[in-house]
Design brief:
The complex is a heterodimer of chains A (116) and B (112). Chain A has 116 residues and is an all-beta fold. Chain A contains no helices and 12 strands. In chain A, the strands form 3 sheets. In chain A, strands 2, 5, 6, 10, 11 and 12 form a 6-stranded mixed beta sheet that branches. A 4-stranded antiparallel beta sheet of chain A has the order 3-9-8-7, with no helix packed on it. Chain A has a two-stranded antiparallel ribbon with strand order 1-4. In chain A, a hairpin with a 2-residue loop joins strand 7 and strand 8. Chain A is globular. Chain A starts with a strand and ends with a strand. Chain B is mainly β. In chain B, strands 2, 4, 5, 6, 9, 10 and 11 form a 7-stranded mixed beta sheet that branches. Chain B is globular. Classes of the chains: A mainly beta (116), B mainly beta (112).
């Protein structure tokens, strides 16, 4: 069975601080995909990034960066110089390529609050 | 841009009523999903579909059924609504296995 653990339920930082959201996953599959989604206060989940199990390169997109380490089964997300607009619930998800539809297992989410 | 729409943002129903939640996507995606989101429980998969008329149970299918007669539309049915089905319901679609999901705005259902 697949499992995604986001141990941090809530994080609060002050604007301009860097913050890392942790994600640890469990799967027996060799082919899988990892995702991060953002759910702002307005409610609609928005896709941020996808990583496949064969690509361990870190990714940077503006103030966002992702660190994928198969050795520790982790896919952590760092926001540099956080802003108030980063306040949201962030979900990490794991998709099983071998099932119909490649359904995803989501973590419980981390609520990030960035204070001005 | 992919657009996933849900028929209602807010819905109030009475216990025992039959409830239909509709979801439509405009990108010809193969896969569609229904989740419910509750505080502290994350997103839980109710049902999903990987083709027209093809559906599978997710993690919490009890009390729900689904229908997918056309590729773009995926309906969630609560046969006899109960108060413990009060929740936020999210619909999503994806192009293929391993692809990201695109979510609708959600329907907040209250059963009284």
């Amino acid at each position: 069975a697949q499992k995604v653990t986001q141990a941090q339920t809530e994080i609060s930082v002050v604007e301009k601080e860097d913050v890392t959201l942790d994600c640890v996953y469990e799967t027996r599959d060799t082919t899988y995909y990892l995702f991060w989604y953002k759910q702002p206060p307005s409610g609609e989940l928005v896709f941020l990034i996808r990583r496949n199990s064969f690509d361990e390169q870190n990714e940077i997109s503006g103030r966002y960066s992702w660190n994928f380490q198969k050795s520790t089964s982790s896919f952590n997300f760092t926001i540099t110089a956080s802003q108030v607009v980063d306040s949201a619930v962030y979900f990490c998800a794991l998709s099983d390529f071998n099932t119909n539809a490649g359904k995803s297992t989501f973590g419980d989410g981390t609520t990030l609050t960035v204070k001005p | 841009d992919v657009k996933v729409t849900q028929s209602s943002r807010y819905l109030v129903k009475r216990t025992g009523e039959k409830v239909f939640l509709e979801c439509v996507q405009d990108m010809d995606h193969e896969n569609m999903f229904w989740y419910r989101q509750d505080p502290g429980l994350g997103l839980r998969l109710i049902y999903f579909s990987y083709d027209v008329k093809m559906k599978e149970k997710g993690d919490i299918p009890e009390g729900y059924s689904v229908s997918r007669e056309k590729k773009e539309r995926f309906s969630l049915i609560l046969e006899s609504a109960s108060t413990n089905q009060t929740s936020m319901y999210l619909c999503a679609s994806s192009e293929d296995r391993g692809h990201e999901q695109y979510f609708g705005p959600g329907t907040r259902l209250t059963v009284t």
